[in-house]
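thought: fold this chain, then report.
action: predict
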Amino acid sequence: MRKVSILLFALLMLSGGQTVFAQRWSKSTDAPINVYSFTETVNTAPELVQIFYNTQGEYFRDPRAPRFILTDREGKWGLGIGGYVMARAEYDFAGVTNDVDFLPSAIQRRSGPNNQIQMDITTSTVFLKLAGRSRLFGDFIVYTSGDWRGAGNTFHLLNAYMSNKYVTFGYTTGTFMDPAAYPATVDYGGPCGMTFYRTTQLAVRYAFDWGLSMGVALEAPNVNADENEFVSIGSQELPDIPVFIKYQFYKNTHLRLAAIMRDITYRDLVNNNNKHQVAWGAQASALVTMGNFQVSGQYTIGEGIGTLINDVSNLGIDLVPTPGVAGSMMRPLTDAWFASVHYNINPMMFVSATYSQTNIHSCNNIGSSAPSMYKRGQYLAANMFVNASNNLQLGVEYLHGWRIDFNEKIYNSNRVNIAARYNF
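observation:
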């Protein structure tokens, strides 16, 4: 029977050996890896360990390298087990947001309580990761993860994919996104103008040695549209196609351009036939590191891409009925952006601030026909994170949000978040 050994190693750390939510910028330490086994045999498997480090997700909420790995005798394949528990308490005042995440589109508009307290632990995450080296595929991983944000606080799938250096096949964050540029927030949802979505995809990418990388994907479409008695959304006929090109100037500094094409099928119930709208999106994002400072930003514009943008993903604005034309739908123009600054005070503490905005533009008199429809959202976050130990991080944050409808009525909300995250 083959001997099975256990590798025990620390999570990837920030300078000073501290873990963080937003790990992408601060310097990491190559902490010694302690190796233990059930037998007298000790197998360090350095190449395998490096695969786990090299294939960590770019999104700051992704778990770090696992603390435990089960390996085969040769140390060529390993199964990592890890995750984190994250507890958050939040208090809304001078305006209430009707969501555990701070979404300007969810700011309360009717009269009611102006204060509320909420607590959440459903974003705690666990994962399994198989990694190794194959003659046919090179460095290869199989990754699954989930949290407890399903209905009734049940398990909710976040990732389930296979990947090597060039190809990813499975369910994960979209290729249109630039997770490395996203700011750190205690608020789980993040900036209102940030693109974020998950989908099943077949993605291909290639990176040159001199900093340039590019990729393309076929993604399962997810359409969120406003239906009525004259139009409906059914099965989609074509995948979404995102592409990107990225130039890495040096570590933690890059410029990325991306585009996406979506063919959205809807049913004209008046004439009883299928119709199509070709949606599109374009995006530019950047991340710049200068000593202890880091700045990042993103701008996105497009028609029929509401599903891909944080604040409006559930508002049904991929397609909306054309005012005055029964059986017809149109693509509202949407633009969204954020800008963020991040500063390391010392190895134990950092602060950041982010401003973001999302805009839905009126077309074909949609603003006049639906005056109470969401038009613009604004999001302001300021926070501080303290690394209390190698595995425990504490955060505190102030948030302010604005919701503006097409009738120019403005609604506000304020929130204070505190959070603790323990990595295991």
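thought: worth noting. The chain is about 5% helix and 50% strand.
final: tokens above.
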